[in-house]
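ok so heres the complex, two chains, lmk if somethin looks off
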Amino acid sequence: MLKQDIAWCPGCGDFPIRATLEKVLKELPIAGKDIVLTSGIGQAAKMPHYLPYSYFNGLHGRSLPLAVGVKLARPELTVIAVSGDGCQYGEGGNHFIHTIRRRLDITILACDNKVYGLTKGQSSPTTDAGMKNALDPQGNLNLPLNPLAVALIVGAPFVARTFAGDPQHMEQVFREAILFKGTSVVDILQPCVSFNKVNTYPWYRERVYRVEEPLRDRLEAIRTAETWGDRIPIGIFWRDVQFVCREGKAMFRKPVTEDAVTRLLNRPCIMMR
Amino acid sequence: MEFNILIGGEAGQGMFSVELELSELLSRLGYHFFATKNYMSRIRGGHNFHMVRVADGPVHALSGRPWDMIVAMDSEETERRHRPSLGEGGVFIGADRVGQIEAEAKGSFQDVAATSTILVGLILAFIGADPAAALTAADEPARSALTKGRDFAARWELAGRMVIAPKAGEHCKLDGNQALALGALLGGCQFMAGYPMTPATSILHYFATVAAELPAHFEQAEDEIAALNMALGASYAGLRSMVATSGGGFALMTEAVSLAGMTETPIVIVDAQRPGPATGLPTRTEQGDLDFVLHAGHGEFPRVIFAPGSIEEAIALARKSFDLADRWQVPVFILTDQYLADSVQVMEGRVPTKMLRRDYPVYEDGYRRYAITADGVSPLTYPGLSEARVEVDSDEHTEDGKITEDLDLRVRMVEKRLRKFEGLKEEAVLPSRCGDRKAKTVLISWGSNRLIVKEVIEALQAEGVALAAVHFGQVWPLTPKMARGLSRRRLVCIENNATGQFAQLLRRELGLKVDHRILKYNGECFTVAELLEKVKQIAG
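and the predicted structre for the whole thing:
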């Protein structure tokens, strides 16, 4: 742990997520200098500040296009985008869908506490219907987004859910997600000790159970992702062994040459149809 | 001697093909020419027209003179709109004759698309192009259609009607967007992300096409927000990167412009302007985004804005943009517009193809991305080169890139970022001048109007009226040096917008009072004849 003032509330689920991520990254067969973290804004998005790796902590909702840019520019780097549910599914919801479609080897971690913390207790895209929050005094009128079902439908080849209260499980899921060659999506169930008085550690502990057996197909994975209520499955719901990951181009420190540019002169103008 | 032709019709009737094929052959045959287009935001139907000006000397603008030839690919609209502007002795090729050409295309070549090539053959015959040279210059499949065009010209007694000598010699022709893409490559750009938007789209097309064969990449983003963030990610990782869009797309990019300012990530942003507000006139021209680009992005941070006025300048400034962005770690903007983007021009001089060198410095562990320095520029490196971590943050940050709320440090960081502005001022590109330097009246332009103004100055000179012109290829920052020789003159500012944004900026930044403004904001560019008339009213 770095000697640093950490901006999270005491008891926040971000602490065990950070500790587990640090352990996993240290133990991976990847040089630390080749790891880049991107994040957006929110409490979870501060994660890279508390880990010993290069990072680009950008704007709210934009961790994913940053990750795409880094990965396309430098395919040899291991790229992990980490942010909260508001960032990845709300402000960055469009990027969430389209980043998955790009078939790049990026790990998407969403610290999902089902509430907005840093802005003090408003509903998030994953807040359950009816829950009372700062801007929903009558209870949340919207349906909760199921991020993993969305990820599966869009075509994510690696989809998992884990729980901040189960470091051992997180460790296994993080490791496999990062090592998986393709876009991996991990939704991390995480209590918010300050603003979410419903989805607490005890609430989750009564409900979560591990899915150990690999699921047969994507439809079964979607059904599992959709399971929510008295029983909440965690585990790797889908791993597409046939997935073809997009390979980036080696461009870094290989500039375009003057000869190549000269050869491009006198190309016909492009007809904009 | 010059020849002005308009080819009109509905979108999809092949006018663009005529322009493309004609300009390609004119270029190969060594003609001086200028080509541009006026089109609607639709795929089929409506009314579009393409204009080509061929001359025995350099031309870089629409003359605005009566047409020497009008080709109507449609039955009524082109005739109704443009026939009144046909010059005395001008030739109108209407539906009946185009119909005969189409029948020939279908009959001889089983392909209605050959119509455009036959028309090109006819036009080349009209201006007296050497038939043998034309055939040699053409690609093999086009040769027999070109000959058919000559035959039509002979049959209709059009051959050699207006003989123009090809005096440009061997040269390169480019449209404004090609020039920007080429300049970007010369500046070392290897990454572009974008979302298509007229009139920037052909920069994307051009970059994507050439990137396929180069160590470069184009990524189509889900929106402009993603486009600029991707480009910033790629820049952070070590590739010189750019985005190109128009005003509406740029509006979405503004939060990431601010991100580039705060994180000091080098980036080049092209805004190909079109008339707004909102969707405006999607396919027409305007210079309405100067104030917007100048102020885009929340907070205070330095930036540079270029506004090239020619193909050469577009290449040179695009190349320079990447170097500046990299060395000063600031966003650099290039303001172009539909007129420059869609105009094909001949480069009389050699294309400057010299690439600028760049470094990839490596630092030791303990590297601080935002180390406070005298000129405000912190050492820049990229992840993975050593144990040095590259820590970049959109919050106010410490020298090593960590979130901070230390307000004394905040002040030092603000000052560090703004110090770069002083260095950027020293490197500012001075305006270019032409005409009589001692003249009392000075025509001021920025961006795409440069060469229209130049031709106006030359025309007036021929009439014995001495004027000067100053063109700003860099519109921000403006420095006192740029104002040299402009005080105590009668200043006339020429802009394609309704509020005279640059005139106001000159007043605010340099204390220059513009006496007259010539503004056009109907979505079309100035023609030489039109601008000449307006200048005469002021300076005549």
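quick notes: Chain B has a mean pLDDT of 96. thats all i got rn
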